[in-house]
Amino acid sequence: MARNPVTWLGSPTFPKAAHKALADTQLRQNLRKATGTIRARRAAAVIEMNDWEQLRVAGEQIKDDVLARLDTLLVQLEESVTARGGVVHWARDAAEANQIVLDLCREENANEVVKVKSMATAEIGLNEALEAGGVHAIETDLAELIVQLGDDRPSHILVPAIHRNRSEIREIFQRRMGVEVSDEPADLAEAARVYLRQKFLTTKVAVSGANFAVADTGSIVVLESEGNGRMCLTLPETLITVMGIEKLVPTWQDLEVFLQLLPRSSTAERMNPYTSVWTGVTPGDGPQKFHLVLIDNGRTATLEDSIGRQALRCIRCSACLNVCPVYERTGGQSYGSVYPGPIGAILTPQLVGDMHDPQAASLPYASSLCGACFEVCPVRIDIPSVLTHLRAEVVEAKGRTAESIAMAAAAWMFREASRYEKAQKAGALARFLARDGRITSLPWPGSKWTSSRDVPAPSAESFRSWWRKNRG
Amino acid sequence: MRVKVALFATCLTDTFFPSTARAVVRLLERLGCSVEFPLDQTCCGQMHFNTGYRDHTKPLARKYTDVFKGYDFVVAPSGSCAGMVREIHPTLGESPPRTFELAEFLVDVLGVTDVGAWFPHRVTYHPTCHSLRMLGVGDKPMALLRAVKGLDLVELPDSTQCCGFGGTFAIKNAETSTAMLADKMRCVLDTGAEVLSAGDNSCLMHIGGGLSRLRAGVRPVHLAEILASTEEDPWRATP
Fold first, then answer.
1. From 3.30.450, 3.40.50, 3.30.160, 3.40.1000, which CATH number describes the B122-228 domain?
2. Chain B residues within an 8 Å CB radius of A459
3. Which of A85, A420, B151, B182 has the maximal Cβ count within 10 Å?
4. A372–B53 CB contact, under 8 Å
5. How much is the pTM?
6. Rounded to 5 degrees, what angle do the CA atoms A342, A347, A348 make?
7. The Cysteine-rich domain covers which part of the protein (chain B) (predicted)?
8. CB-CB under 8 Å, B162 with A448
9. CATH-assigned architecture of domain B4-109
10. What is the per-residue pLDDT for A216?
């Protein structure tokens, strides 16, 4: 089987990638500012909802119901879309999906497509695949465009250029659009608008993702802020939507829950500016050809895991990224995937499906398990629990290592209080390594700790020996 | 009737911070509890579980249940270890006895916020992640500290952000952990506090280890030691 492009080829493991990112002071500054702002705004948007916790539970339950009935709901979706004049395609993996889209572009004689921001197409590496097939994809979401023009990679689910500040964006625009522009956000947006308008009016094929698909009506829903999506979804003659199979909701009524949860969690808005919904093809209105490409790409395998499958509830809001202390310092590119942050740490390795892959296997450890992600997740994905669950899979895949031997020894020691006490007494000798009650240097792997932190000298008398002497 | 309490000292406090466990004993006895320390206790298995060694965790969880069964209340000076017992042990097939983090036990079970303590120092408090998000301890520790005579409590900026400890995370992702620690230390230093307190010695060991490396002049002191301190028997720095 071909490698899953959800991770970028050649990405180092998380600690190695983080090493580089942590040294980038501009990145640190940009991220601190951006995540700090959005964190506060989200908190304000959520606290005004009296029923937020009930909404979260409803979101969780609807998604769990979808995952439990995915087989029948998908068939229902296919029937609804087909009945309304759309064509449904099924893709097992990225390669199949990319080929389907490329073939559709060729059928239309298109050498250019405009794109609505989409995680599914980023996950399968569609732009690169189309380019290799002679079709140029133009990203029309502002942040996505910044990434594309900067020959960069995304670092955030919602704001893929979050790692860039406005002076960096100005530089990219001047270089790639050949325009003089200030670093005022309004000027930058205007430059992008002028650049894109021509593309919207002349391009015959658009490619989108989907936030939701309603199984019983076959309607597809896209939420966005800029209006570029609305352009792509209405002006071209052909619309190709690429969607993960888990993006379903059973009925229109279920949408109500997510249309409240998603904007507040992602952009901290009560309602997003543009919500586009379309159902198949409407004669004389909008694209006259509609294709829906359903991608699996590791999802069915993820569904088999009773703990890990909750990652498929994700509605790609990015709230977990914005509150994550690890993400805030390392940035998104350190995760080596289009899915960064806490959700990436649990989703990416499952989609890759191979814990022998060192990069994927390093992701579940990219967390201090502080739990801030779970607290904000609008569909209540218990990310810390999935992280420890996946760590257990990594340990199993790695087999016998220095760490596993040390852990086995420690577990053996802890199983009997007498052994533990002996170890405690032996360990207490380490106090002779200490000066002024602190140890400043230890051999590997302790050196990883003492690189930045002292260790308190173990006490000459443990609590238990004090207890035995005084109370026992 | 005296409330009977079993102390789960946790392996870290037992070994590195015995003064915290002694403070818990003193505090709870002062509040009228009778405290026992079952000597068969060792570790809740959190390090193993969180690093991915679930199979090694199971016998430790079993041992915890065996050691503490029969006690009405188990109290631990750690939100993290209490969280491990309460939230994770059941997923390993155990029905552990009722286990509380110290502040929860004082406020929810004993129903006290003024424990009669005296601690004339400027203190800031780091609410540790597992106390906050696994146990939902909320502002109970702050309520306890506010009632301490002589204590000048200053709010820690960005208090709910993780300090970067995370168990083996501090080793496996040492540089990211250090970056988180650096920001936490800056917040601590910004308060001008002379004492940094928390309900977990693990986090205090981490932040304190960083502050010690910088010779920052801020001392980490566990919540239990502040609450145990009285005018008659004041807190003293113990080696």
1. 3.40.50
2. 15-18, 239
3. A420
4. no
5. 0.97
6. 100
7. 5-85, 123-207
8. no
9. 3-Layer(aba) Sandwich (3.40)
10. 96
